[in-house]
Design brief:
35% helix
Length: 82
């Protein structure tokens, strides 16, 4: 968790989606809220709110980083930019 906090703290703003287990069991005490609490400028948003949140932030660079289905969120976001 500390490694994630250190690296994500490098961003000016960080939006985190809720953490969910894929093939593993959930790890007690490891949540997006706990992670966000250790990162200045971090906020947890629901997947359904991500596009509107990103569109309002007016960022010059946006990175989608993660595991699981995070890649599926890129095309809908790109379509929302038009």
């Amino acid at each position: 968790m500390d490694g994630f906090k250190n690296q994500l703290s490098r961003a000016e703003k960080c939006y985190l989606l809720p953490i969910y287990p894929a093939r593993e069991l959930p790890i007690e005490g490891i949540t997006s809220q706990v992670l966000a609490s250790g990162i200045s400028g971090a906020e947890v948003v629901a997947k359904e709110q991500l596009n509107s949140t990103l569109l309002q932030c007016n960022a010059e660079v946006i990175l989608f980083v993660g595991a699981g289905d995070i890649g599926l969120l890129v095309e809908p976001f790109k379509a929302a930019l038009v």
